[in-house]
Structure formats: C-alpha cells, structure tokens
Design brief:
This protein has 424 residues and is an alpha/beta fold. Helices cover 33% and strands 25% of the residues. It has a domain of 247 residues: Carbamate kinase, CATH 3.40.1160.10. Strand 11 and strand 12 form a beta hairpin. The longest helix is centred in the first third of the chain and has 16 residues. The relative contact order is 0.12. Keywords: Amino-acid biosynthesis, ATP-binding, Diaminopimelate biosynthesis, Kinase, Lysine biosynthesis, Nucleotide-binding, Transferase. It catalyses: L-aspartate + ATP = 4-phospho-L-aspartate + ADP. Catalyzes the phosphorylation of the beta-carboxyl group of aspartic acid with ATP to yield 4-phospho-L-aspartate, which is involved in the branched biosynthetic pathway leading to the biosynthesis of amino acids lysine, threonine, isoleucine and methionine.
Length: 424
C-alpha cells in the first residue's frame, strides 16, 4: 500500500461543488489501495477576505490575533472536505495544524517548521481513515500560540507531512496542468513540462513562478520528497519535480537547455546616489538594510566618477520590504554620507532558467538579442550557474517574457489552459 500526500489550493476548493469534486478524487485514490493524507488551503479568496476584514477593523493588527483569524479559513475547508468524503462512504478525519503535530517557531505570519510529530495522523491512517490537515498553520511550543507559515504555507505543510510520514509522493494540485515553461496567463503558448529538476524549480520559484512556493521546493529537496504538480480539474499527468541524484523511474534523462521563463512584479529598486567610493561603504549600507530583515535580491554598483570619488549602488527587495529599507537608509544618511535615495516600484524582473546552461554557449547573447529586437531596455543584470535575470520596466516585462519564450523555441502548438485563474 502506498502513502500519498495531496495538497489542494484555494481555487481547487473554492465552493461546495469544487469540494465535492476534490472529495471524489481523494476517494478514488483511497479505493485504489492507497493511504491518503490531504493538506488543504482556505476556500477561494477567503484569506484575502479575512485580511480585508481585519483592515476594516483596524489598520494595525496584533500579529497573534491576525494568525488566529487567518488560520480559520483552512479549518473551514478541512471540515467541509471531511464531510464530503464521509458522504461518499469513506471515513475521514480533519485536523488543525497543531493537532497534526506541525511544530513551528514563534514568528507570527511567517513561521518556519521546526518539527513534525504526526502521531494522531498515523493513528487515523492505521484505522483506515483519510486524513485531512489544515494547511498554512502550526503551533509554537515556545509561545504556545497558533502560527501561520506565510505565503505558500499549504504547499510547505504538504511537503513537511510527506517527509514526516515517509510518503511515496507528494501531489500538489492546482488550477493548471503542471509546471509550465512560463506563466500561461502571461505567455499563452507556454507548454507543460513532464519533469523538471528541483534545482531548476527552486530558481523558477525564487524568480516569481507561482505554481510552487520556494520554501516547499527547498523542504522537498532537503528531505528527498518527490513532488507531482497536477491539475485538480482533470486526470492528466502533471509535472514531476525530481532530484537528479534520486532519478524517478525511467533512469537518466537529458536535461533541456532552458526549463522556463519567470516573471516577478513584486520587487522595488532602491538606488543610493552619491556613495563615497571607499572600502566598507557598501558593507555599511547593506548592514543597515539587513537590520530591517529585507531580502536583497539583485545588486549593481556603478563605476566611480573620477571627478567626485562617488558612485551609485542599486539593489532590489520585495515590495513588502521596500518602505522599511528606504526609511532605515534615510535615517542613516548622515553617517553613511550618501547624497540621496531613489525609490522605483515600477520594475519587473525576468529570469531565464535551465540546468544545462552550465555547458551551453551563447545563451546570454541570445537572450539580449531577443530583448533588443523587442525594444526592451535592461536596467540590471544578475546571474547564477543556471539562471540569468534582468530588470526592466514593469509595463514591458510581460512582452519581454513572450519575446524570450519564443526566441528559445519554448512555444507550444496550442494555448495553455488555466482552469480557475489564480495558479495556486
């Protein structure tokens, strides 16, 4: 008997009919002889609606109470799904994150999993029940409070359960047929990948691809969990995310040069103008930024002007971190000695990802030629072994993605299908 962990996102359980459809899929897996554990997100836009309600009550929410509020969405989903499965003649039991043994640190809104003790889940499985777990949430032993895991938390919940229960596979169900070569809402000719390495998926997720969250991919890679990204709206085979050192059945495969093109509109660019070009200046700047817990992505320093002995340093951070990084630098202007700050929230990042880029020549030239022919101006560039990222204007980054996708022969024959619209 195999143990399967399944995760269903908000679009997959958006309403009563969707929940009943998901219940039938789960029962089919159980009838096939599998033990089944399910991590479920809040219904549709419930989390956003709860957040809006909190903002109406007060613009500044207590983190502990906000976690209590937001975690209620998944509890609604888990109970309704368990009811639907029971109506089909199979035993099902729902568990909150704390009941499931999801132990986290005490950081509200962005807690990290420190341990998983699924004692009650194993007991339920041994008694023949389907196990339904509320995603996105856990329990801190330190503070004895409910915590939430932040964006992509239900993905991370599913992967953590799969690792703790030694599951055969972790199936991530969403509203597209798998991992595509680009976001099908932006690049309609994007095509589904049958398989992708965990290394490539990490780069794509970190570069803005929304089908899987980077924390879930990191956790899966670290614990040897095989991911299968599928659509909850059909029975098509999805995309296997695998570790090359743990190849799936079928043996070695030749990796494609380019796995995909990702777009990220969630960053801002901060430019520190007129920085004294002396040793330690950059260290002082980024030490101050680090104190705000802002996650710096790309950094570019201009050549020093000989006449002034000063330079400009630009860097990007998530929009949620932009204002606090800007404020911290502004407060330290006198001690740092720079002239001014510039804040740009109208940027977009495009990333080209492929594990075989290590040994393929001419990738950069081909990328920049495609952008030139599309009339796209590049503002920043960064690279890794398997990724090239560029920053351009927000209103041109989608056109850039389509141009690059075509230039690298990634276009499929037919338009991709998005069943619900959110991609999660």
């Amino acid at each position: 008997m195999s143990l399967i962990v399944q995760k269903y996102g908000g679009s997959s359980v958006a309403d009563a009919e969707s929940i009943k459809r998901v219940a039938k899929r789960i029962v089919e897996a159980r009838r096939a002889g599998n033990d089944v554990v399910v991590a479920v997100s809040a219904m549709g836009d419930t989390t956003d609606e709860l957040m809006d309600l909190a903002n109406e009550v007060t613009p500044i929410q207590a983190p502990r109470e906000l976690d209590m509020l937001l975690s209620s969405g998944e509890r609604i989903s888990m109970a309704l799904l368990a009811m639907a499965i029971k109506s089909l003649g199979h035993d099902a039991r729902s568990f909150t994150g704390s009941q499931a043994g999801m132990i986290t640190d005490s950081v509200h809104g962005a807690a990290r999993i420190v341990d998983v003790t699924p004692v009650r889940l194993r007991e339920a499985l041994d008694e023949g029940a389907v196990v339904i777990v509320a995603g996105f949430q856990g329990f801190s032993r330190e503070s004895r409070d409910i915590t939430t895991l932040g964006r992509g938390g239900s993905d991370t919940t599913a992967v953590a359960l799969a690792a703790a229960l030694d599951a055969d596979v972790c199936e991530i169900y969403t509203d597209v047929d798998g991992v595509f070569t680009s976001d099908p809402r932006i690049v309609t000719k994007a095509h589904k990948l049958d398989r992708i390495t965990s290394e490539e998926m990490l780069e794509l997720a970190g570069s803005g691809a929304k089908v899987l969250h980077i924390r879930a991919v990191e956790y899966a890679r670290r614990h040897g969990v095989t991911l299968h990204v599928r659509s909850s709206f059909n029975n098509s085979e999805g995309t296997i995310v695998y570790d090359p050192e743990r190849l799936p059945e079928g043996g070695a495969v030749e990796e494609s040069v380019i796995a995909g093109v990702a777009v990220d509109l969630g960053q801002v660019k901060i430019t520190v103008v007129g920085v004294p070009d002396v040793p330690g200046a950059a260290a002082k700047i980024f030490k101050i930024v680090a104190r705000t817990n802002a996650n710096v992505d790309m950094i570019v320093q201009n050549v020093s002007a000989a006449a002034t002995g000063r330079t400009d340093i630009s860097f990007t951070v998530p929009k949620s971190d932009g204002e606090k990084a800007l404020t911290a630098l502004s407060d330290a202007q006198e001690s740092l000695g720079f002239e001014s700050l510039q804040y740009d929230d109208q940027i977009g990042k495009l990333s080209l990802v492929g594990a075989a880029m290590r040994s393929a020549a001419g990738i950069s030239a081909r990328l920049f030629e495609a952008l030139y022919e599309a009339g796209i101006n590049i503002e920043m560039i960064s690279t890794s072994e398997i990724r090239i990222s560029v920053v351009t204007r927000a209103d041109s980054v989608n056109a850039a993605a389509r141009a690059v996708h075509t230039a690298f022969d990634l276009d499929g024959d037919d338009d991709a299908v998005v069943y619900a619209g959110t991609g999660r």
